[in-house]
């Protein structure tokens, strides 16, 4: 593997004392895991935030080897992680994507949809502006992975949007997260709790 591509960083975990393993969603190659030397260091810490849009350069000697990656930040979603509701939305969207998608299978429509969803979360004045995009993304993910994915009726009111969001939880847990839903669904439950506060 020897490629350079725009990507969305969807997960990052520590590896050794200073490195990190990142999962990147690319349009052409799907999800790619990569080793990031110095990923825990001061210079790369602002880059290694799930949700960030980056330019990734990946190199490996064989397809079976974990590629080494150099990352360049092109759009940071970090400033919105200080706000509880956008932070929960970004965390859930990235965790769902990182867990549900198989590696190295391209899903260009999901790449575009996730990028649009994350931009909406960061730019909309309230959750009413991005919750329809979240529902559409979850529906598209189910459809792309072969589990139907008929978009629930929402209406324009927040209560209708939340009801549609709730109806998607069962299919997501049953079909996409059946083996590892505990930790990942906790991110969705946190988002749902924060959305519920908007009704009170």
UniProtKB/TrEMBL annotation:
Protein known as: DNA repair protein RecO
What family does the Swiss-Prot or TrEMBL record give for this protein?
Belongs to the RecO family.
The record, for Gene3D superfamilies, names:
Nucleic acid-binding proteins (2.40.50.140), Recombination protein O, C-terminal domain (1.20.1440.120)
Biological source species: Altererythrobacter litoralis
Q: Which Pfam families match?
A: RecO_C (PF02565), RecO_N (PF11967)
Span of domain DNA replication/recombination mediator RecO N-terminal: 1-68
Give the InterPro entries listed for this entry. Answer: DNA_rep/recomb_RecO_N (IPR022572), NA-bd_OB-fold (IPR012340), RecO (IPR003717), RecO_C (IPR042242)
